[in-house]
Amino acid sequence: MGPLTPHLLKAGASPDATIERLKSYTRLLIEWNRGVSNLIGRNDEQRVVERHIAESIEPAAWLGPDRGPVAGLWIRRRLPALPLALAGWARAGPWSSPDA
Predict the structure, then answer these.
(1) Minimal CA–CA distance to 90: which of 9, 5, 4, 13?
(2) Is 88 exposed, middle or buried (0-12, 13-18, 19+ CB in 10 A)?
(3) Backbone phi and psi for residue 33, each to the nearest 5 degrees, phi listed first
(4) For residues 96 and 73, is the Cβ–Cβ distance under 8 A?
(5) Average pLDDT over residues 13-31
(6) Which class for 83: exposed (0-12), middle (13-18), buried (19 or more C-beta within 10 A)?
(7) Residue pLDDT, tens place only, 35-83
(8) Which of 20, 39, 21 is CA-nearest to residue 86?
(9) Rounded distance, CA 87 to CA 95, Å?
């Protein structure tokens, strides 16, 4: 069991499928961070899973399955949106529009 498995299970995601997607996302995040924009601190690269990915997925358990407007306000335009979407949690809705 990897460090993300408990978080993914609480979020209702399939760990096996989701972890592969999150690995790809993490590689791209670090590559972008080093070459284009400082999205996360350089010191955070070694702990990106614990510091950013797990922390992004954890709220899915307490935000609930309705994925309503409060969740949308919280995740829109922020790092948590992508890991949550990759875990299958952040589904499209009227709150997910970047213009909302």
Answers:
(1) 13
(2) middle
(3) -60, -40
(4) no
(5) 91
(6) buried
(7) 888 878 888 888 888 888 888 888 777 766 655 555 554 555 566 677 8
(8) 21
(9) 18
C-alpha span between 10 and 33 (Å, rounded): 29
Is residue 25 within 8 Å of residue 48, measured between CB atoms?
A: no
The sign one gets for the Cα dihedral 98, 43, 89, 28 is positive
Write down the pLDDT at residue 24.
Answer: 94
3-state SS string for the chain: CCCCHHHHHHCCCCHHHHHHHHHHHHHHHHHHHHHCCCCCCHHHHHHHHHHHHHHHHCHHHHHCCCCCHHHHHHHCCCCCHHHHHHCCCCCCCCCCCCCC
- In angstroms, rounded to a whole number, what is the distance separating the alpha carbons of residues 33 and 40? 7
Q: Domain spans of the chain?
A: 5-86
